[in-house]
Amino acid sequence: MTTASVPATPIEGLWTIDDVSAFLRVPTATLYQWRHHRAGPPAFKVGRHLRYDPAAVRTWLASREV
């Protein structure tokens, strides 16, 4: 019997675009622009919805420190 692989982050722990917007204090439109230009935190689609791994968002933010 094969078992399905389990993602490293449980689905319950994923952030929506509104969550990331509130965390980073930027408009959701900015997040969509960043995604279009591949400049923002990594996101992936679940159906039609964008989801973010909170650890990946924090890592992305830390990498932006000057």
Automatic annotation (TrEMBL):
Residues 16-64 form the Helix-turn-helix domain. SUPFAM superfamilies: Putative DNA-binding domain (SSF46955). InterPro entries: DNA-bd_dom_put_sf, HTH_17, WH-like_DNA-bd_sf. It comes from the Bacteria. This is Excisionase. It comes from Actinoplanes awajinensis subsp. mycoplanecinus. The lineage of its organism: Bacteria, Bacillati, Actinomycetota, Actinomycetes, Micromonosporales.
